[in-house]
Amino acid sequence: MRLTNFSDYALRMLMYAASAGDRLITIEETARVYNLSRTHLNKVANTLTRGGYLKAVRGRSGGLTLARRPEAIRIGDVIRLTEPDFALVECFATGNQCVLTRCCKLAGVMSEAASSFQATLDRYTLADIALTPGDFFGSPVPGRQRDTETITA
Q1: Rounded distance, CA 144 to CA 68, Å?
Q2: pTM exceeds 0.85
Q3: What is the percent of the chain with per-residue pLDDT over 90, rounded to a whole number?
Q4: What confidence score (pLDDT) does residue 105 get?
Q5: How far is it, in rounded angstroms, from Cα 59 to Cα 95?
Q6: Given this model, what pLDDT does residue 92 score?
Q7: How far is 53 from 9, CA to CA, in rounded Å?
Q8: What is the pLDDT, as a whole number, of residue 95?
Q9: Among 33, 78, 103, 135, which has the highest number of CB atoms less than 10 A from its own CB?
Q10: How confident is the model at residue 16 (pLDDT cuts 50, 70, 90)?
Q11: Three-state DSSP class for 28?
Q12: What is the distance of C-alpha 121 from the center of its chain?
């Protein structure tokens, strides 16, 4: 099973917002940190804001911050918000054309697998996967100096 890039970017944006603590992050800054498209992250931020995971602060020094404590943001809930569906096989999707649907035993196995996947994600919160600002190697947090190291051969 593979998640969409949209879900991946949503989790990354939440991880970055969690690492910032009370400091507001911007879409531009997050795009730079992850080397991602600002346009894509704008869509992700809108979805996360509408879903109640991020809070947008408007204005000249505005930005984004977590709308809930990291312990209150379940990874499974974020994935259900950002994934279009969990149609692992054709018979799960609308417009199913599979000729085996009425007698196939694969659907039950795939349904169980999808349920296990979602149950595992539900056991974890953003707090479980949060990083510190220093973990974003090569991306200094605005207003902080990054330690530099001289490497000699």
Answers
A1: 25
A2: no
A3: 62
A4: 84
A5: 46
A6: 73
A7: 14
A8: 78
A9: 78
A10: very high
A11: helix
A12: 12
